[in-house]
Amino acid sequence: MFFVFDIETIPDIDFVRLALDEPDLPEPELMERATEELAKNKSGFLPPMFHRMVSWVGLWIDNEGNPKNKLGWHGTDEKEGIQQLIDALRVYKDFGLIHHNGRGFDIPLLTYRSLKHGLPLPQRLNSHDIKYRYSQQNIDLVDQFSNFGASSWPKLKHLGLLLGIPFKKTGEGNAVYEMYQNGQLAAIEHYCYEDVIATYLIWLYMKFNNGDFRPAHFEGLRDRALSKLLEIQAEEP
Fold first, then answer.
1. 38 in Cβ contact with 172 (< 8 Å)
2. Is this structure's pTM higher than 0.90?
3. 2-234 — its CATH code?
4. Residue 36's CB: how many other CB atoms inside 10 A?
5. Range 150-153, long-range pairs (CB < 8 A, 24+ positions)
6. Domain ranges of the chain
7. Where is the Predicted 3'-5' exonuclease PolB-like domain (predicted)?
8. How many CB atoms neighbour CB 66 within 10 A?
9. What is the pLDDT of residues 189-234, one digit of tens each?
10. How many C-beta atoms lie closer than 10 Å to residue 202's C-beta?
């Protein structure tokens, strides 16, 4: 079994204040300073430690790529959300992961935030099959398509555009904080679900390109996933 997943986050303002020792600085100035002092990249995106989870979506699929069931959560109680994700991952003893930049962001985020809340992660996440960089049980699309950093990392949206996958009508990742401030938590999960189906679709294309799936099998899974993606995009979050 594989778990295709994505996590949506917002900056942890309280922790950023603590890290910068700025209890009273207005939020716009605080985030500007955080971008300068805490971000270690050109985009200014804060490291995983300085985010908190507001939604996640996971899709269980079998080893042949057949979808089994979708799980998800959104809310303001991060500890509750992390516990629900941990419980979801404990359904199976042995499982693989499929994600886009999960090694660089989602998995470290889950590690930091579960540590913060005192929630032990499933032992599977610390196994060699998951930790090993070239593992085929922990599949990060940015590694797979960049040949593990030999080439540039592709954005999920650009992979979708390349493959003709209709992509992202709910909003971009940098809109999540604004959506959260407006109380649009269900919309954030909806957006997250769209990302998960897009990730799953791109993985299907990759497996077919690698010769792992027969054409008829691939086409059936692809058409079913595309239909689901269009259904998600047509729904009002």
1. no
2. yes
3. 3.30.420.10
4. 10
5. 153/101
6. 2-234
7. 44-228
8. 12
9. 999 999 999 999 999 999 999 999 999 999 999 999 999 999 998 8
10. 23
